[in-house]
């Protein structure tokens, strides 16, 4: 029976195969000779290993959009600008647009765009002229000399694009990623709309973007005029609903879902703070906090040179002011639960978990501590509670010079701007009696235009070899006098959000009074306990944190010399480097081997005074002893003797020049690695200049020719690595 059933099955299977073959032949012969877009897409997806989900041309077609605004962002700024551009193209130019991360799509499909489509790129340059983490794949694909697109060609004659770069002129390779992408697209035959925008964060990135955006949209409107009555100035991205019943899950500031503007964020680990101490001798003048976090149960790992990102919340004062301005400062209104829905998810998605509460939005999710954009100030003029307040905001929103002098220089936050516009006194404690309500301001508008609160990143100052399961942070507390405002005649201070958050953690652990430098006024206070008291357990505070991996790496071979240059907190990663070598040395000796063939490590460090702000002063001699004299520390104390012969202060670049013969020998003869960490605006440039001069001298040539050539070789071979900030 089984054999007979098997034979019948074979016969039936054969008949079915013949039938399927005949049907396929009929369908194939009925197809037109010219393949459809869908057919090409499928073929490209199969042959090039792409998927329909990563086909942005298909996504544009499905969503009935003509423009896609791509962003490549490291801190969220490029994403915010791309979102603003997409809205402007939709509202002002009447071009349906969508927002997208370059990491989410495959760019083999660029050749399938129609001539009436537009692609916009907002591209950040990160580090030493590098594309961002999310933009690396796109950058490498486009710059492949043998690049091929889905139709098999190597050109993009139908592509119309616009591009804006986010960079900082303090760095040598200013806006390199945007420059390279623009040049490559033109080489491939694409046509740019408007100019290449180059935003400079060292001056006014926001203003550079606004100027470029307005000019580029003018070009678009000129080629496709839009009737004035069709232009929309105040469309919303979100709809807010107050649930009739309490939802089963409500977010009170948890970071378990959402996007930071750079990548999908999994819940940061709440790392217990096991130690927090002051490193400066007199913290009443300046403060530097050393913080140790326990990551033993996080599953995270790191290497010396990586960064730790901490997630602070907004200070209590700014949260209270914003809630009062919106009319939610009394009773339980601030705990109102809101369910937020994106009206067009392709244009703007909800940037934080929902449903959530009003107070969570302004304490944990929106960045109300930074200087707001001029675009937001101009938009809020339409929602002012009085004509005088509206006139005040219109002036700031339309006059770049006035905005710079009255908002940027005095570091005015959004709530302060609105209070000043309404005539409120900033010196008074916020209450319903001292803060004017702005009933016309919608929460939807604020969610659309205020960026998401971002993590603050710091170089890790420890080695996991010496401190297993611990991460150390070395942070100078930012609290600097800002310019005076014509609306607030008191001396104003600018407080760094992350560093003052860490400072208050230190105060809380030591039960210290949290005072600032000016007239003993309270410095910013934060809700350290977190949502549902998640970050306080049995008297131990935790900080939500994550690790960002870096290419700032020690050579694995200890026989390669290492030269480190890091004044101030620029010494942080080098403390980790030296600790790593110490741990290796301990293991080597424990195995019965010697350090005889190990190379030297040189650290060039600088601070003001040896008895004032010399970071980890008592640790370095122990490290030198553990490395058996192979670690050498060169210290420049800029405000104590000895000074230069001309009376000038001594800095790390001066020490480097003094040691030029030995350092040049290590670089040219022993292939030493050089690391620079710290200020990008002056220190790193001065160090590179000295390196150029000393290497030229060692080669017997000029700095302009031989010196620059040697420096280029070091960078190309990744033997000169920078971790600098503006």
UniProtKB/TrEMBL annotation:
Residues 67-217 form the Flavodoxin-like domain. Its cofactor is FMN; FAD. Pfam families: FAD_binding_1, Flavodoxin_1, NAD_binding_1. Keywords: Endoplasmic reticulum, FAD, Flavoprotein, FMN, Lipid biosynthesis, Lipid metabolism, Membrane, NADP, Oxidoreductase, Steroid biosynthesis, Steroid metabolism, Sterol biosynthesis, Sterol metabolism, Transmembrane, Transmembrane helix. Residues 266-538 form the FAD-binding FR-type domain. GO terms for molecular function: flavin adenine dinucleotide binding; FMN binding; NADPH-hemoprotein reductase activity. Its EC number is 1.6.2.4. One of its GO terms (cellular component) is cytosol. This is NADPH--hemoprotein reductase. The lineage of its organism: Eukaryota, Fungi, Dikarya, Basidiomycota, Agaricomycotina.
